[in-house]
Structures are given as structure tokens and as C-alpha cells.
Specification:
about 220 residues, Rossmann fold, globular
């Protein structure tokens, strides 16, 4: 056994890999247990969101519903330093993107940024982790295109109208020269009304992007 393989085997023995959904111990090299693999299925959702300022509709492809064990898994990924979950979700999203955006030749993959304050507290931007991995899997360059300039209120506590007001003006372009005339794939973790993605897309379009399409891990289904 090679040294690296021996090291992995030792780590697996001390810290056995667990299913990202139910936390059951699983074989090395896997991400989910067989039970969750059968029960937790992709919904393959296609959400279409309006950007009224530009009269545009942008698509968002989503593999999962934000409920049950998927919701708990994303909470652990987002708030409990489970950064390794990014690889699993990036794989599922890359599959979805390849299928749904088959005829779109993206120039750049980017992510919805978080504020400097939240990044310092959390230590990472979960959407960026996924987006970088997705970019690698679909062989398209990843670039940071946006920055968040306000530490606004969390979106999940607000109504649809309040969500749009809450994110208005919250994002700025980093370098317009990077995406003028480009087709951009914008990635976030969760989509509800689409207010955040629409605001980011608006900034990208106004800065010269030719096309913006989106993808997220999971969709919150509103009653």
C-alpha cells in the first residue's frame, strides 16, 4: 500500500466517513449510504426568474428540494464547517448543468458572494466552494465577478417583496473587463424567490454580460 493510501486508510479508521444526509458510517470513497441514495432523489427543477429592470427572464437549474435530510445536510455544510460536502453537491449540479444547459457555451463560472463580515465569521463561502468544483468538473474557468458591499438581513426571514428590497444595491462588479460580452453561469446554494440571484444577474448584465444563467443546490418550495 502506498504512503498516501495508507494515510487515507488511517484517517478513515479514526474518522470514518459518514453519509452527508443521515450521518451513517459508509465505505471509504463514498458520500452517501445506499438507503439515502435510493430515497433522496433529485427533483431536476427548472426555475425561471424575472429581472423586471431589464425585461429578462433567467433560468436556474436545481437538483434538490430544500427539505428533510437535504435541508439538514446543507445547514451542516453551510454553518458547521462541513466543507467536504461541496464535492458531492458540485457533482450533482455539474450533471444537471450539462444536461439542462447543453447548448450554452459558458465563458465563466462565478458564485454569489457573501459579505466580508460573514466570510470572516464562517471561514468560507459555501457557494464559492461549490462553484469552483463545478467549474473544474465542466472545464470552464472560475472567476470572482462580484463582491457584496452590505451585510444585509438574512433573506429567509423576509417576504418576497422585502427580499428584493433587502438585496437591492448589495452587490458590485469586481472587474467589468472580466465579463463584458461573456456568458456567465452564476451559482448559489439555495434559491427561494430568486431575489438574490436576480440582483446579482442584474449587476452582471449592467456591467456588460451577454448572458446569465443560474444553478443552485436546492429550491425552497413556497406554499
Amino acid at each position: 500500500m502506498r504512503f498516501k493510501e495508507a494515510g487515507v486508510a488511517l484517517l478513515d479508521l479514526i474518522f470514518p466517513p459518514r453519509c452527508i444526509f443521515c450521518r451513517a458510517v459508509i465505505p471509504s470513497g463514498t458520500k452517501t449510504c445506499k438507503k439515502c441514495e435510493k430515497q433522496i432523489l433529485c427533483i431536476h427543477s427548472a426555475k425561471y426568474m424575472n429581472v423586471p429592470e431589464l425585461g429578462k427572464t433567467i433560468p436556474c437549474m436545481v437538483p434538490y428540494s430544500y427539505s428533510g435530510q437535504v435541508r439538514q445536510s446543507i445547514i451542516r455544510f453551510k454553518f458547521q464547517n462541513q466543507k467536504q460536502f461541496a464535492a458531492f453537491y458540485a457533482e450533482k449540479m455539474a450533471e444537471e448543468i450539462i444536461q439542462k444547459y447543453l447548448n450554452v457555451e459558458f465563458d465563466t463560472v462565478t458564485s454569489v458572494p457573501i459579505s466580508a463580515k460573514r466570510r470572516k465569521f464562517r471561514g468560507y463561502n459555501q457557494s464559492e466552494l461549490i462553484a469552483r468544483d463545478v467549474a473544474r468538473r465542466i472545464d470552464i474557468p472560475y472567476r470572482d465577478c462580484l463582491m457584496k458591499v452590505t451585510d444585509n438581513q438574512e433573506q429567509h426571514k423576509l417576504s418576497e417583496k422585502e427580499r428584493r428590497q433587502n438585496v437591492h444595491g448589495a452587490y458590485r462588479p469586481l472587474n467589468k473587463d472580466l465579463f463584458v460580452g461573456k456568458k456567465i453561469l452564476l451559482i448559489d446554494d439555495i434559491v427561494t424567490t430568486g431575489a438574490t440571484l436576480c440582483e446579482c444577474a442584474l449587476v452582471l448584465f449592467r456591467s456588460g454580460a451577454q448572458e446569465v444563467a443560474c444553478a443552485a443546490i436546492a429550491e425552497v418550495c413556497l406554499n
